[in-house]
UniProtKB/TrEMBL annotation:
It catalyses: myo-inositol + NAD(+) = scyllo-inosose + NADH + H(+); 1D-chiro-inositol + NAD(+) = scyllo-inosine + NADH + H(+). This is Inositol 2-dehydrogenase/D-chiro-inositol 3-dehydrogenase. Keywords: NAD, Oxidoreductase. InterPro entries: Gfo-Idh-MocA_inositol_DH, Gfo/Idh/MocA-like_OxRdtase_C, Gfo/Idh/MocA-like_OxRdtase_N, MI/DCI_dehydrogenase, NAD(P)-bd_dom_sf. Its EC number is 1.1.1.18, 1.1.1.369. Residues 137-324 form the Gfo/Idh/MocA-like oxidoreductase C-terminal domain. GO terms for biological process: inositol catabolic process. One of its GO terms (molecular function) is nucleotide binding. The lineage of its organism: Bacteria, Bacillati, Bacillota, Bacilli, Bacillales. Residues 3-125 form the Gfo/Idh/MocA-like oxidoreductase N-terminal domain. SUPFAM superfamilies: Glyceraldehyde-3-phosphate dehydrogenase-like, C-terminal domain (SSF55347), NAD(P)-binding Rossmann-fold domains (SSF51735). It holds the Pfam family GFO_IDH_MocA_C. Involved in the oxidation of myo-inositol (MI) and D-chiro-inositol (DCI) to 2-keto-myo-inositol (2KMI or 2-inosose) and 1-keto-D-chiro-inositol (1KDCI), respectively.
């Protein structure tokens, strides 16, 4: 069986996903695309030589009976409306982060999905499919380092655009750590506090950069997460879990070791696309396989999208107040309680 995809948003990651579904993965086909920039949608069809209809908007695409799955890769604020409409139409959804820009918006998606009586939505938190994070999780789950006590993490981008402002360090960037860290240690978040160190000269007026988040879990784990989006030297993701019996660290991205000009060196990547390329492939192949064989996606759920939104709200509040802010979740519905995704 071939799963037929309609893509809403043919920008950077929309095209990446179209390319992987069309040319790298098996079991999926792009049959429809749309973008508020219709030229971009048409160019995408030409660029990847797709046999796909270009629709004027998401509603028309969702209404196409030939579309089994709606891929949501538009701008964050547009996600909620598309996801709710797709779920109400009974379509499967693969939605890039954020699921919605507010916790209330995520809850509306959760409610729409529960009404359909089965899981339809997967959120694009691809780090859960990265081999390094999967190994870290296995080490923790197998008690190889004892109980986790602390996490030290860093999310560094070489540079960001002029319209990237302080809040985006949370909603655009930290959001990946927000999802992956509680999943790693099987715990819930309790509070967050933010400190702004001295600002780099490479930032601009509306962006505090770097930022240091201290997140505590209900179980007492303290996580220190640095977000530094003008670090200049490359795209660098670090994560070290300190446990009672040992320390486990995310492996460095593998690269050849070069001896040259009296130096011993390895390269550092400079773009998220390359750092998580394999994870995106595994993630979407898993989505295709799960929907095709089990009738439900098994990756990060709408509820994970909700957790991320509530946590992000508290982080943004903490940026504004400088105080420790509580992270309070609604009770998890039984509908989402199955823990299926333990390994990719
Ligand atoms: N998982 C990841 O690592 C990752 C990486 C990059 C981006 N993302 C997420 O993916 C989404 C897209 O990011 P991007 O970098 O591709 O952005 P982008 O600006 O390159 O592309 C977004 C596209 O969506 C279109 N669009 C906006 N609103 C629309 C609407 N209502 N209907 C149809 N099309 C619409 C825009 O015209 C644009 O072509 C964002 O939510 C972003 O946070 C996730
Ligand atoms: O800070 C960036 C992250 O490192 C990437 O993984 C993407 O999510 C991108 O959208 C963010 O702007």
């Amino acid at each position: 069986m071939t799963l037929k995809f309609g893509v809403v948003g043919t920008g950077a990651i929309g095209r990446e996903h179209i390319d992987r579904i069309t040319n790298k993965l098996s079991g999926g086909k792009i049959v429809a695309v749309t973008d508020v920039n219709q030229e971009s949608a048409k160019q995408t069809v030409e660029m990847y030589q797709l046999d796909a209809v270009v629709y004027p908007d998401d509603q028309a695409l969702i209404a196409d009976e030939n579309v089994d799955v709606v891929v949501v890769t538009s701008w964050g604020p547009a996600h909620e409306a598309t996801v709710v409409a797709a779920v109400e139409a009974g379509k499967y959804v693969f939605c890039e982060k954020p699921l919605a820009t507010t916790a209330e918006g995520c809850m509306r998606i959760v409610e729409a999905e529960m009404k359909q009586g089965k899981k339809l939505v997967q959120v694009g938190f691809m780090r859960r499919y990265d081999n390094g994070y999967v190994q870290l999780k296995q080490a923790i789950d197998n008690h190889e380092i004892g109980e986790p006590l602390m996490i030290r993490a860093a999310h560094r981008n070489p540079t960001v655009g002029e319209n990237y402002v302080t809040e985006m360090a949370v909603v655009d960037t930290l959001i990946h750590e927000i999802d992956v860290l509680h999943w790693l240690v099987n715990d819930d978040y309790k509070s967050v506090q933010v400190v702004f160190p001295r600002k780099t000269k490479y930032s601009h007026e509306k962006l505090q950069d770097p930022q240091l988040f201290t997140i505590e879990t209900v179980g007492g784990i303290v996580m220190s997460v640095e977000v530094f989006v003008n670090c200049k030297y490359g795209y660098d993701i670090q994560c070290e879990v300190i446990g009672e019996d040992g320390v486990a660290k995310l492996p460095e991205y593998s690269s050849i070791v070069m001896r040259k000009d009296e130096k011993l060196s390895t390269s550092i990547l400079n773009d998220w696309k390359y750092r998580f390329m394999d994870a995106y492939n595994v993630e979407i192949q898993d989505f295709i396989d799960s929907v095709t064989k089990k009738g439900e996606p098994q990756g990060p759920t709408s509820w994970d999208g909700y957790i991320a939104a509530v946590t992000a709200d508290a982080c943004v509040k903490a940026q504004q107040t400088g105080q420790k802010e509580a992270i309070v979740l609604n009770e998890k519905p039984a509908f989402y309680s199955e823990k299926k995704l333990q390994k990719a």
